[in-house]
Write a structure and sequence with these properties.
heterodimer, A: TIM Barrel, 8-stranded parallel β-sheet, 35% helix, B: mainly beta, 5-stranded mixed β-sheet, 1 helix
């Protein structure tokens, strides 16, 4: 059975999206993307200075990967919009993850500024992925504004704490008619699997892969786990119960029936 | 004259072009995108832009990010 996630006309079979930050080298990042068969990878823009790498990260993202530009560093909607336009002008395409952050301790997104940026960029033809705190009302507004998907956080960026926002994410999955992609905070493959079992369309993972001892293997582990969770979701996960329900026959046969 | 480069005031030669500015800063032009007074300047126009006092230039490039 072919199970594809379709966003803006692009069909995606690997529902693990990978972020390219924090890898020890671009070469290592490239291998991780390749070995995990990643189809979507995020890249960011930064002010260049004399100390900037001379290597171009774009040379290391496999050509089979859809690039999603992250507006990280933006502190309001206007800056996010500028970054998106710069990225597009530089030939990075029109898939934009809107990340607007004003809180340096928890790196939690500013949902209202993010919504403003979505409104502007969707009208300009960008495929917009708002990184947001999981909130149903704002999620609905993101959908109305033309977002391509919503990307609620599992826990703070880089915290590796897993899906602490599980109940709110479930509500978004049930109520919003857009792909829900959990972004941020997933620390291990089982947590990515959990998201997929809940019915998320995809997950985006960066830190847990990039800072592991073997990022190539870890990317593969996440990929397998995301696939397993998706398969389980599609198979219809049975309900839980408080008492036992036998899985082997219990009819007695080495004793008499009374 | 003084212009703002990536948010910081810096001294540059009068009427430098963007191409000259990138060279003087030792940057590799391949990876860069430039915004001049909030307008994105395509690479083929860099040499036609002559900088003026108090101009604002943002020079950015792609990096790893989640």
């Amino acid at each position: 059975m072919e199970d594809l996630l379709e966003i803006a006309g692009k069909k995606i079979s690997n529902r693990l999206f990978i972020g390219t930050g924090k890898f020890a080298s671009y070469a290592l990042m490239k291998r991780a993307l390749e070995e995990a068969n990643a189809e979507v990878a995020t890249v960011a823009l930064r002010r260049a200075d004399a100390g900037s790498k001379t290597e171009n990260i774009m040379d290391y993202v496999p050509k089979t990967c859809q690039i999603m530009i992250n507006t990280s560093g933006a502190r309001n909607a206007e800056e996010a919009v500028r970054i998106a336009r710069l990225a597009k002008a530089a030939g990075a395409g029109n898939w934009i993850k809107i990340e607007v952050i004003r809180d340096n301790k928890y790196l939690l997104p500013d949902n209202l500024e993010t919504l403003k940026a979505v409104e502007i960029l969707a009208k300009e033809g960008f495929v917009v992925f708002p990184y947001m705190s999981p909130d149903l009302s704002i999620g609905r507004r993101m959908a109305e504004a033309g977002a391509g998907a919503v990307m609620p956080l599992g826990s703070p960026i880089g915290s590796n704490r897993g899906v602490k926002t599980r109940e709110l994410i479930e509500i978004m999955i049930n109520e919003i008619k857009l792909p829900v992609i959990v972004d941020a905070g997933l620390g291990k493959p089982s947590e990515a699997c959990e998201c997929m079992e809940l019915g998320c369309a995809a997950v985006l993972v960066n830190t847990a892969i990039a800072v592991s001892e073997d990022p190539v293997k870890m990317a593969q582990a996440f990929s397998a786990s995301v696939y397993a969770g998706r398969l389980a979701y599609l198979s219809g996960i049975p309900v839980t119960g408080k008492i036992a329900s036998a899985s082997s026959p219990l009819t007695g046969f080495l004793r008499e029936n009374k | 004259m003084i212009i703002k480069i990536n948010g910081k005031p810096e001294e540059v030669k009068m009427q430098s072009s963007l191409t000259q500015l990138i060279l003087s800063k030792g940057l590799c032009a391949d990876n860069l995108v430039i915004e001049h007074n909030l307008r994105i300047v395509p690479k083929h126009q860099w040499q036609n832009i002559s900088l003026e006092e108090n101009d604002s230039v943002e020079i950015v490039s792609f990096v790893g990010g989640g």
